[in-house]
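STRUCTURE:
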């Protein structure tokens, strides 16, 4: 079950997925195949219910694999956000310097007489 991931504020940065989301992505296709083989309803609602129930009963050792993936994904997201934030600050500083009082300009102030 391939899902589109949310993108943060139009910045192009994909938001970090939770451990459950990683598990759901991993298990959904397998569960759908099982349901089809058993001749049971394989609609999205049923698949989500089964995934959710299996997640709640998943052994801590098995959950830790998905928790590790979530932690790595969160680190990636935080790094990408930090890089974006540094770039935004750099651009703001450039604009501030360009518009600072006393900055060189091509126009002259007119004196009223």
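SEQUENCE:
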């Amino acid at each position: 079950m391939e899902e589109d991931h949310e993108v943060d504020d139009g910045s192009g940065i994909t938001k970090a997925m939770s451990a459950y989301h990683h598990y759901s992505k991993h298990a959904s296709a397998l569960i759908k195949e099982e349901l089809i083989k058993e001749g049971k309803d394989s609609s999205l609602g049923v698949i989500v219910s089964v995934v959710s129930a299996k997640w709640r009963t998943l052994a801590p050792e098995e959950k830790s694999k998905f928790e590790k993936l979530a932690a790595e994904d969160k680190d990636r997201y935080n790094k990408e956000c930090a890089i974006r934030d540094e770039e935004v600050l750099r651009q703001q500083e450039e604009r501030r310097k360009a518009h600072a009082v006393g900055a060189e300009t091509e126009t002259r102030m007119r004196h009223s007489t």
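REMARK: The radius of gyration is 26 Å.
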